Input
Amino acid sequence: MSNQSWQPPQNGANNPWASQDPNWRPTQFHEAQGRDPRTPFGQQPTPPPNWEDLTPPERKKPTLWIALAAVAVIAAIAIATLFSGSDPVAQPELSPSAGASSPASEPTPTRTGNFIPFEGNGNGIFEVVSYEWRGDDELHVRLRVEVEEAGEFGFSVFVFANETRVGYEAVDPAAFVASKDKPFEGDFVFLMPKSESTVMLTTPSGRITLNALPIGA
Output
């Protein structure tokens, strides 16, 4: 074996790679329609259906029925217009029952109008009969409590100033009892600054507020 290494051919006339064949052309490939694998060998493919065969036949419009319906609607409108000119039958007006009772919270001749109903502890009416400021630090107020349920029920009152929210108890014990047969009505004195205030009706312990009424300055 020779130790001489192989040398690549040099550029020259004897080198077959130095020039190209002028008659050489690349191979041309053409697309061909493939065979449907569902079609057996030797069977001609089924031609696609004609689009005219797939178009549904046109339906005839029911012009006659539409015309008849339009005539019927026009006739109905004409008849309704003809009878609409007649006077409607007068409906009798219902008068309120003479025996209907007025709500318990409506003013009565024995009330001043500054009152409000309360619920719980016998249910009834809480009323400020009258009030008077004597000087700038003394409020005199007369209160009335009516009870609707049977039995005796205890109550208490206090007043607080609207602006400061400070509460004031009556000079004398403010707890009292009222019943359905014996409404309570009494006078209370509160030592407090003269201002817009609110008198509160509560249970005897003062923990449950039943309702409230305003007191002007």
Observations:
- The first helix runs from residue 51 to 54.
- Residues 86-107 have pLDDT under 50 and may be disordered.
- The longest strand covers residues 124-133.
